[in-house]
Amino acid sequence: MIRAKHILDPVSADDGLRVLIEPAWPRGVGRSRGPFPLWLKDLAPSQSLLARLRDDTLSWGDFVLLYSVELEKNRDYFSGLQDHNHHDGLTLLHASPDNNHNAATALKMILDDEDRMAQDPRVV
């Protein structure tokens, strides 16, 4: 199961691999705070895309769609993340004040969709 959490949320025993999905290290968060052994800024949405989401100039659905397009160049990360998802668990971390509309939640949705399609290609 993939989880999306705020970077300051407590660590759970079932978090599995914890991955920070932000283009820049969050302000006010020391790098020793953790554990998050992996910071995949390559999988984070662009600063401009995040700014449009924060400024409400882009709907959540459009953000997820455009983020998915941005991820095309980094899809090779997906199989490794899915392996962790299926074996040890995967927690995607974000630093947004909005727990429902952030990069980690969007990536979770995208990975969940890809996983469903891989298990049953008839699912659209």
Present the secondary structure layout.
Elements: E1 2-6, E2 17-20, E3 38-39, H1 47-54, H2 60-70, H3 76-87, E4 90-94, H4 103-119
Parallel strand pairs: 1-4, 2-3, 2-4
Annotation keywords:
124 residues, alpha/beta, four-stranded parallel β-sheet, 4 strands, globular
**Integer-rounded radius of gyration:** 14 Å
Count all strands and give the number: 4
Spatially, the strands of the biggest sheet line up as: 1-4-2-3
- Domain count: the total is 1
| Global morphology | globular
- Summarize model confidence as the mean pLDDT: 88
Question: Secondary-structure element sequence?
Answer: EEEHHHEH
User: Structural class of the helices, strands and pairings?
Assistant: alpha/beta
Distance between the termini: 20 Å
Low-confidence stretches: none
| Major sheet summary line | 4 strands, parallel
User: What percent of the residues sit in helical stretches (DSSP H or I)?
Assistant: 25-40%
Question: What percent of residues are in strands?
Answer: 5-15%
How many helices in DSSP terms? Answer: 4
